[in-house]
Amino acid sequence: MKPLRVLIVDDSATMRRLIRSILEADSRLDVVAEATTAREARDAVNMYRPDVMTLDVEMPNMSGIEFLRRLMRHRPMPVVMVSTLTHHGSDVAVEAMALGAVDCVEKPRFGDGLKNFSKLSDMVVLAARARLPTPRSALLPRPQPDRERNFQRICLIGGSTGGVDAIERILQRFPANCPPTLITQHMPEPFLVSFAARLDTLVAPRVGLASDGAKLEPGKVMIAPGGASHLNLCGPVDGPVGLRVRLHEGSPVSGHRPSVDSMFLSAVPIAQCVVAGILTGMGGDGAEGMAALRSAGARTLGQSEESCIVFGMPRVAGELGGVEQWADLDVFGDEILRLCESPVHVGAS
């Protein structure tokens, strides 16, 4: 198999040299060009036809986000964003992933060595082989509260690579009185702060990072804050009333923190009150927990292979028997809401 052709775009010569040295050490990758500005990057894309690009978030003249927006409109290709963890950098990185960037990696920070770039080569290879997102249809008006709908279950959603765009599309289908919803998305802690803030401005429900002890309520979406914590459930086992969030500090579960498996497994005691959805992402986090939830009476939904950026987590969940039904991303939100209206049979096996 021929090495994948990589274009590095960054205005820092030091950062370009660092990224090149890491990628060229991997026989799967061939760095064919570098660029320091959006104009140079555009010319390099046309000249070298790379398979994948690393793109600096903050660049002079035309920003990385504006270049990405134009790139995805005229010449879609896999992109990994490279970001500093400034407040602005995190906001823009999340916007980039919503526009179609496959993933985002933090630039190394002083004193951390190359820890942040330890998986850079794997990330670039995965991005090059990932399916590009389907263009979004025209943004629909925010759904209005529908008092005639009776949501009887809570909603749990897990995602990873490609999940930023997927979660945005799903929540844009949710009305302001949506079912109580918890989300675990694999991202660094600062990106999750920006992600929650962005969603709160885009969708009808209230969206924020989960806090320990917070009560699950209709119309409220809580996202795992990451860092040292997993997002779990605690409370009575005889129904959704009185359920609260528990931020559990602990080691990674299924290779991740926050972990989808940790969240799903914590909900097994009240599985009859749960609808669980698993989205695009690499690996198998969430698969074991979804299988346990379904066995205990939860309704479960997996994102279809055709609409996934990376058909990893849903595939493994399906192989373990955890997926009750499949749905394309465009209808995933509607299907979750429909399942949340299904009757709860407490004590069912």
TrEMBL record:
Q: Which UniProt keywords apply?
A: Chemotaxis, Cytoplasm, Hydrolase, Phosphoprotein
Enzyme class name: hydrolase
Q: What post-translational changes are documented for it? A: Phosphorylated by CheA. Phosphorylation of the N-terminal regulatory domain activates the methylesterase activity.
Q: Which BP terms in the Gene Ontology apply to this protein?
A: chemotaxis
InterPro entries listed in its UniProt record: CheB-like, CheB_C, CheY-like_superfamily, Sig_transdc_resp-reg_Me-estase, Sig_transdc_resp-reg_receiver
Catalytic reaction(s) noted = [protein]-L-glutamate 5-O-methyl ester + H2O = L-glutamyl-[protein] + methanol + H(+); L-glutaminyl-[protein] + H2O = L-glutamyl-[protein] + NH4(+)
SMART domains given in the database record: REC
Q: Which residues form the active site?
A: 160, 186, 285
Pfam families assigned to the protein according to its UniProt record, in alphabetical order: CheB_methylest, Response_reg
Q: List the EC numbers from the record.
A: 3.1.1.61, 3.5.1.44
Annotated CheB-type methylesterase domain ranges read 143-337
Identify the residues that the record assigns to the Response regulatory domain, covering every copy.
5-122
PTM sites of type 4-aspartylphosphate = 56
Any Gene Ontology CC annotation: cytoplasm
Record localization:
Cytoplasm
Q: One GO MF term, please?
A: phosphorelay response regulator activity
Q: What is known about what this protein does?
A: Involved in chemotaxis. Part of a chemotaxis signal transduction system that modulates chemotaxis in response to various stimuli. Catalyzes the demethylation of specific methylglutamate residues introduced into the chemoreceptors (methyl-accepting chemotaxis proteins or MCP) by CheR. Also mediates the irreversible deamidation of specific glutamine residues to glutamic acid.
Q: Can you quote the domain comment?
A: Contains a C-terminal catalytic domain, and an N-terminal region which modulates catalytic activity.
**Family membership:** Belongs to the CheB family.
> What is the name attached to this protein's record?
Protein-glutamate methylesterase/protein-glutamine glutaminase
Q: Which organism is it from?
A: Celeribacter persicus
